[in-house]
Automatic annotation (TrEMBL):
It comes from Paenibacillus ferrarius. One of its GO terms (cellular component) is plasma membrane. It is a multi-pass membrane protein. It is found in: Cell membrane. This is Sugar ABC transporter permease.
């Protein structure tokens, strides 16, 4: 049974890793080889021409935009979600259950449903093609509030009451007692948010209007380097490989946080 499980896991790993392998190898193939049928499974004559062509575009500007948006959004989501989750978990006030139910319902609502009114509102504010227009709408992430609320429920109420009896203010209570206890959940939420923001191609496609404001995934997808009617897939694969590096690095560094985040999402208080 153990051998069968190992074989199945190995097969599953190969299936999931194959697209990335194909992107990386395709980044070192010329156009005719990258689109050849039958395919060339490994580049017999690797070339760096795709990478040289890729860096003729403002790649570093796109990468900087992606990092600014993803990092700021990650910090803002963690702050808002941790405070909202703590309040919903530990504070008693009228309508608390209704508000939490609304967050749960919002998790099932596709982003495309609210995109038109959201774009209209941002256009009226003059926030289209700006950093804050890309960042602010994503701060109230329902999943983040749900995750933090579920984990905040595991904090002993006696600990909070003892701090209040010692004269601890709400701000000090939250910053010195609650936040340190929420660190595992915050670590998981930070990674989830960074990945979601980095890969948020659809919203960026709608909100961005200039080349200088493009993010790396959006810029890579817009590249057509040979002619108006022909896309250089080798260059696109090189861009896709470059765009995936931060995601792979973050997963390898914080993979325990991913596991903890999935587990904590199922905690019931």
């Amino acid at each position: 049974m153990k051998v069968l499980s190992t074989v199945l896991l190995l097969i599953s790993t190969l299936v999931f890793i194959f697209p990335f392998y194909w992107i990386v190898t395709g980044a070192f193939k010329i156009q005719t080889v990258a689109t050849a049928i039958p395919p060339e499974w490994f580049p017999l004559k690797p070339t760096l021409s795709n990478w040289l062509e890729l860096f003729k575009n403002p790649i570093w500007r796109w990468t900087l935009n992606s990092f600014i948006i993803s990092v700021v959004e990650m910090a803002a989501v963690c702050l808002v979600s941790s405070t909202a989750g703590y309040v919903l978990a530990k504070k008693l006030f009228p309508g608390r259950k209704i508000i939490f139910t609304m967050f749960i319902a919002a998790m099932a609502l596709p982003k495309q449903v609210i995109l038109v009114p959201l774009f209209t509102m941002l256009a009226n504010f003059g926030w289209v093609n700006t950093y804050h227009g890309l960042i602010l709408p994503a701060i109230g992430w329902p999943f983040g509030v749900f995750l933090m609320k579920q984990f905040a429920q595991t904090i002993p109420g006696e600990l909070i009451e003892a701090a209040k009896m010692d004269g601890c203010s709400e701000i000090r209570l939250f910053s010195t007692i609650v936040l340190p206890l929420l660190k595992p959940a915050l670590g998981a939420l930070a990674i989830f948010t960074f990945i979601a923001s980095w890969n948020d191609y659809f919203s960026q496609l709608i909100m961005v209007r200039s080349t200088s404001m493009m993010t790396l995934p959006l810029g890579v997808s817009m590249m057509t380097t040979q002619s108006e009617f022909l896309t250089n897939y080798g260059v696109l694969m090189a861009g896709a490989a470059l765009a995936s590096v931060p995601m792979i690095a973050i997963f390898l560094i914080f993979q325990k946080a991913f596991t903890q985040g999935i587990t904590m999402g199922a905690v019931k208080g």
